[in-house]
Design a protein that fits this description.
Number of domains: 2
CATH architecture of the largest domain: Alpha-Beta Complex
CATH topology of the largest domain: Spore Coat Polysaccharide Biosynthesis Protein SpsA, Chain A
Oligomer: single chain
Distance between the termini: 62 Å
CATH class of the largest domain: Alpha Beta
CATH superfamily of the largest domain: Spore Coat Polysaccharide Biosynthesis Protein SpsA, Chain A
Radius of gyration: 23 Å
Strand order of the largest sheet: 3-2-1-4-8-6-9
Helix content: 40-55%
Length: 383
């Protein structure tokens, strides 16, 4: 009797038929992303790297990062790799960074320092500091990380550099956040983890669109050949993802996310700081290629429509058996893929939280993104 009533509702009410169609279509889109892109990270097997140890310049930009340099710079300077240099760009720091770096200079001969003096007549964003570091580099392979990042092992450089050959210009690594207490920390880790699944999975499937400056490598010659940051120089952020978005292709890009090649960053400690950081990161989205913008927006939009249509259909008691089957298929796929992805990217303890964050994250990101609208002319801030 209930199935008969549901069928009558479906036939007599075009609204319900549209909602049901949206529900099924968005579920298919969601499954496509999970099984096509996100699962690719777990299924991927890293190819054998080059035996040749190519020379590497590690570039770190730092502004008022004295404490982080003390904690994390040794993990970069003590890598088990024969031929590398570490260039720290001390960008207008007003703390003890100069003294900290001076102390390290006495102990680590691989360290080089480039300093930018403060000039009230000239303000600049991080891209300028990055450019100074690239100009100072003497090696062809450039490997980037941040002052608040630590390398997970002394094999970080070796793993990232091993993929460069005559065809590879980019190696996209994984940069997560340190595991701390609190719900905000879990959300920050979830956010970076899901972004990692997305950009790594898409690169594996031949559609690279971004990388993260916490763990990214590319060729110095390519940077100058493509005129550096080019038309994106003025953009507040994007010293990493926009250069990748403009120049990375299926044939010249590789990924590296074995545990020993991860980096871990210090997460924001307050919601206000995280929102500010997220706003800065999202300023790059409008400058992506159109195909990438469409591909990226379709997943969160389909997710929102999936949950809204689910609520409507359940409230109408419409074909609940079919609804539960479709929902269950998507839910089980989600749990399995996220659990497997967390295992590969070494992000334990997020699976159950991910189910909850999955519902709210499109709204959070949407609100943060919309708050940036009309404010892209904000004065340049380094970080």
């Amino acid at each position: 009797m209930q199935n008969f009533e549901s069928q009558m509702i479906f036939q007599d009410n075009p609204f319900v038929s549209v909602v049901f169609s949206i529900f099924v279509l968005t579920a298919v889109i969601q499954l496509y992303y999970y099984l096509r892109f996100y699962l690719a990270v777990f299924l991927y097997r890293h190819p054998a790297g080059s035996v040749e140890k190519k020379a590497v310049s590690v570039i770190i930009c730092a502004r008022n990062e004295a404490e982080n340099l003390k904690k994390f710079l040794p993990s970069v300077l003590e890598q088990n790799y024969p031929d590398y240099e570490v260039i720290v760009v001390n960008d207008c720091s007003e703390d003890d960074s100069y003294d900290v770096l001076g102390t390290f200079l006495l102990k680590y001969p691989r360290l080089k320092i480039s300093s930018i003096s403060k000039d009230p007549r000239f303000t600049h964003n991080k891209k300028f500091a990055q450019f100074i570091g690239i100009k100072a580099a003497t090696k062809e392979i450039l490997l980037f990380t941040d002052a608040d990042c630590q390398a997970e092992s002394d094999s970080w450089i070796e793993g990232m550099a091993s993929h460069f050959n005559e065809n590879i210009d980019f190696v996209l690594g994984y940069g997560g956040y340190l595991k701390l207490k609190g719900l905000l920390n879990k959300y920050i880790r979830y956010d970076s983890f899901t972004i990692g699944l997305q950009y790594l999975g898409m690169a594996i499937r031949g559609v690279p669109y971004m990388g993260v400056g916490r763990n990214l490598a590319y060729r110095r010659s390519l940077f100058f050949e493509r005129k550096g940051f080019g038309i994106h120089t003025h953009v507040l952020s994007g010293d990493d993802d926009l250069f990748v978005n403009s120049n990375a292709k299926k044939t010249n890009t590789c990924v590296e996310f074995r545990k020993e090649t991860h980096t871990r960053s210090v997460p924001c400690s307050t919601l206000k700081d995280w929102i500010k950081q997220k706003k800065r990161h999202l300023t790059t989205a409008p400058y992506y290629k159109l195909r990438d913008k469409l591909r990226l927006i379709s997943e969160p939009v389909s997710r929102v429509l999936f949950y809204i249509s689910l609520i409507i259909l359940v409230s109408l008691h419409f074909q609940w058996q079919i609804i539960m089957i479709v929902f269950g298929l998507r839910f089980i796929s989600q749990i399995i893929v996220l659990a497997l992805g967390q295992k590969r990217l070494n992000e334990p303890g997020l699976t159950l939280y991910s189910v909850i964050f999955d519902i709210f994250s499109p709204f959070i990101n949407g609100i943060v993104f919309l708050s940036n609208t009309g404010r892209r002319s904000v004065k340049n801030k380094w970080k």
